[in-house]
Specification:
alpha/beta, 8-stranded mixed beta sheet, two-stranded antiparallel ribbon, 8 helices
Length: about 220
């Protein structure tokens, strides 16, 4: 089976889209995280390749046309944030609006260790809900979550009020909370939620990848 055939099969089975949030300012790292090189590819490329194991409808949300031009991935759908300067909430809204499928997996561009087994479990648990959100010790991980288009009007409500905390709208939709026990069964080290904010995080990520490649 070719990669393209496999990608189409995943999309048919899962009926989800993928959304990569790449509109952050990267103030702590001091440069664009999405094109930061790691293991002979960019962070964004690494995440894009992972998502291709789940779906071939992938949207990258960016905040400027200049940033869009810098993304070195061919044949990828890049859209401008409809709510610029409104953080990840605006990016989620924009991505859901452009997604082909009713359900979308949203991930941040600085999370190099997303786990397809965990994602598949999240997809399995979505039935009867509007979103599936991992919770680590009762704290949500909203930029590694599944959202349906039913969330759109509720997200817009808070964007229009400039209330940008993602979890604000959770009380208005039917959320499936993924607890520690389920998460650790598929991702024991919780690496799915490791994100790169600064040079120290980047060094840790490279060290983890080096250990993985040597085992």
């Amino acid at each position: 089976m070719t990669q393209k055939t496999q990608e189409r099969q995943h999309t048919s089975e899962n009926h989800i889209s993928g959304i990569i949030l790449a509109g952050g300012l990267s103030k702590r790292l001091g440069r664009d995280k999405s094109i930061e090189p790691i293991e002979n590819q960019t962070l964004l490329s690494r995440i894009h390749k992972k998502l291709l194991q789940i779906t071939n409808d992938i949207t990258v949300v960016v905040n400027t046309e200049e940033k869009a031009r810098k993304i070195p991935i061919c044949n990828i759908k890049i859209v401008l944030d409809q709510y610029p300067n409104c953080g990840s909430l605006g990016g989620i809204f924009t991505g859901l609006n452009h997604a082909q499928q009713n359900w979308s997996l949203v991930v941040a561009c600085d999370m190099p260790f997303i786990n397809t087994k965990l994602i598949e479990k999240m997809i399995e648990l979505r039935t009867g809900h509007d979103a599936v959100v991992p919770y680590l010790d009762d704290f949500p991980e909203p930029t590694h979550a599944l959202y349906s288009k039913k969330c759109l009007p509720h997200i817009k409500k808070y964007l229009d009020k400039n209330q940008l905390k993602i979890s604000n709208f959770f009380k208005e939709v039917n959320i499936k909370k993924l607890n520690n026990q389920i998460i650790k069964k598929h991702d024991p080290d919780l690496l799915s939620f490791f994100n790169i904010n600064n040079e120290k995080d980047l060094a840790i990520a490279k060290q983890i990848l080096n250990l993985k490649s040597n085992n």
